[in-house]
Write a structure and sequence with these properties.
Length: 417
C-alpha cells in the first residue's frame, strides 16, 4: 500500500458532502501547501481535544499542510492546577495562590525551552498550554483554541489568564455564546468527528458482540449507556439516579464507560466512588477501547450525555452518527447538537432524564425516528471535513503581519459566524 493511501483523503468525504465541497476545499488548501502548523495540547488521549487532533492533523497533512501535534509535559502538580483552571473556566471556584501560578508558569517555561517554534502557524488548545506564548518571541500567528464551556468563567481566573490570551492573534471558541471581551478577533468552530476511525465506522454484529463478551456486558436487556471521562460536569451520579428511577418502570441495563485522561487527576477518585453504586444491572467500566465505545453507542437503546457543563459533547455527535436515541443535558454545546424532540431529547434534571429513558424504551418507533434524524444532522453539520475547512478559512485570512483580517475571514468562511 502506498504510504499516502494510508491517510484519509478529503475525497473520502465526497459520499457525505458532495464533489463541489471537496473541490472548494482543494482550492482553499492551495495557498497553504507546505506551510508548517504546530498544534499544542496537554494529553495524547482521553477527551475530545485529543480525539480531534489526531485525525485533524493527519487530514491537514493529506492536503499538503505540514501539521504537527505536540503535547506539553508536566508534573502531577501542574495537571492538578490546570484541572482546577479547567473547572474554573467552566464556572467553579478556584484558590489561585502564588504557588499555583508559579508552577503553571514554570512548567510552561520549561516546555517552551524544549520546543522551538519556527512554524507558520501555532495553534494552542485549551488552558493547560495557553500561557506558553509568553515564553516565545513571536514569529508567526498564534491562535488559542478554547474547547471548554466559557459561558460563565470564574472572574479571578479569567483576569489571571487574560494577559496571556491577549497575546494571541486570534481565538477560536466553540460557540458564539462563549464570546469574551478580548482584543484578539474571535472565531467559532463547533467540533466534529472522524467517520472513518474504529470508533465511528460501521462494526459488524460479530465485532460488537466480541467487545460485549470481552467485558461481560449482558445484552439480553436494552442497554442504557453513558460514555464519558469520569468528571463531575458529566454528572455520572445523576445518570445512575435517573436510571434507578426509570428501572422501576422498564427493564434495562446501564453501562457507564469512562476513561481517565493523562491531564485529569480527578478522574480516578470519581471512578472509585462510582464503583460503590454498581449492581447486577449497573456496570461501571474504566477502559480505553474505541471499538467498545462504538459497539455501545451502536447497540444502545438510549445513549445519555447528561452533562451539567459541556463545551461541546463529542460523545453526543458520535452516538448520533450511529443513529442512537440520545438524551443530552441542556448545557453548552449540546443544545446546538440536539434539537429537542427532533433528533434526540434535552433534559435539565434527573427526573426529566428518567422520564425520557422510559419513553424511549417503551417506544421503538420513537428511537428509530430520533436516530434517523440524528444521523442526518451529523452528516450535514458535524463531520471533520467542515472543521478542516474552517481552519483553512482562518489560516487564509492572516496577513503577513500576523494580523487576522476578520472581514476577510468572514468573507472566506462559508459557515455561520
Ligand atoms: N472517550 C473514550 N472512551 C471513554 C470515554 C470517552 O474514547 O471511555 C472519548 C469519547 O468517545 C469522545 C471523547 O473521549 O471522543 C470525549 O469527548 P467529549 O467532547 O464528549 O468530552 P471531553 O472529554 O472532551 O470533555
Amino acid at each position: 500500500m502506498d504510504q499516502k493511501d494510508r491517510l484519509t483523503q478529503i475525497e473520502d468525504y465526497q459520499e457525505f458532502v458532495g464533489k463541489e465541497t471537496i473541490n472548494r476545499i482543494r482550492e482553499k488548501a492551495k495557498p497553504l501547501a507546505g506551510k508548517h502548523v504546530a498544534h499544542i495540547n496537554s494529553t495524547f488521549y482521553g477527551g475530545g481535544v485529543a480525539e480531534m487532533l489526531s485525525p485533524l492533523t493527519l487530514l491537514m497533512n493529506s492536503i499538503g499542510i505540514k501539521a504537527e501535534w505536540k503535547v506539553i509535559q508536566g508534573s502531577p502538580d501542574f495537571f492538578s492546577i490546570t484541572k482546577k483552571m479547567h473547572n474554573a473556566l467552566q464556572g467553579a471556584d478556584i484558590n489561585l495562590t502564588t504557588i499555583k501560578k508559579d508552577t503553571y508558569e514554570n512548567v510552561l517555561f520549561e516546555n517552551a525551552v524544549r520546543n522551538r517554534m519556527d512554524h507558520d502557524f501555532v495553534v494552542v488548545h485549551d488552558p493547560q498550554p495557553l500561557g506558553i506564548i509568553k515564553f516565545y518571541e513571536k514569529r508567526q500567528p498564534w491562535i488559542w483554541r478554547c474547547h471548554v464551556d466559557l459561558s460563565s468563567p470564574n472572574k479571578v481566573l479569567f483576569d489571571y489568564l487574560r494577559p496571556y490570551i491577549q497575546e494571541y492573534d486570534a481565538i477560536i471558541l466553540t460557540l458564539k455564546e462563549y464570546k469574551q471581551d478580548l482584543k484578539p478577533p474571535q472565531a467559532f468552530f463547533m467540533p466534529a468527528i472522524n467517520p472513518f476511525c474504529v470508533k465511528n465506522k460501521k462494526l459488524s454484529e460479530k465485532e460488537m458482540q466480541g467487545r460485549f463478551n470481552h467485558y461481560g456486558i449482558p445484552t439480553d436487556l436494552p442497554l442504557v449507556v453513558q460514555i464519558s471521562r469520569f468528571d463531575k460536569w458529566k454528572d455520572p451520579e445523576g445518570v445512575i439516579e435517573a436510571f434507578n428511577i426509570a428501572r422501576k418502570e422498564v427493564d434495562a441495563h446501564l453501562v457507564l464507560l469512562g476513561n481517565i485522561a493523562t491531564d485529569d487527576p480527578e478522574g480516578e477518585k470519581i471512578y472509585k466512588n462510582l464503583l460503590n453504586l454498581q449492581d447486577e444491572n449497573i456496570t461501571i467500566l474504566s477502559q480505553q477501547d474505541s471499538a467498545l465505545v462504538n459497539a455501545l453507542q451502536s447497540k444502545a437503546a438510549v445513549v445519555l450525555q447528561k452533562s451539567l457543563k459541556e463545551g461541546f459533547g463529542l460523545t453526543v455527535t458520535e452516538a448520533m452518527w450511529k443513529g442512537a436515541a440520545v438524551i443530552g443535558g441542556k448545557a453548552g454545546g449540546i443544545v446546538h447538537q440536539i434539537e429537542d424532540g427532533v433528533n434526540g431529547f434535552l433534559v435539565s434534571s434527573v427526573e426529566e432524564a428518567a422520564k425520557r429513558i422510559v419513553q424511549i424504551l417503551k417506544d421503538k418507533n420513537l428511537k428509530n425516528k430520533l436516530g434517523k434524524e440524528a444521523k442526518k444532522t451529523v452528516k450535514e453539520k458535524f463531520l471533520l471535513i467542515r472543521y478542516l475547512e474552517q481552519y483553512l478559512d482562518l489560516f487564509n485570512s492572516f496577513e503577513t503581519t500576523y494580523h487576522l483580517d476578520l472581514n476577510k475571514y468572514k468573507k472566506n468562511c462559508v459557515f455561520d459566524h
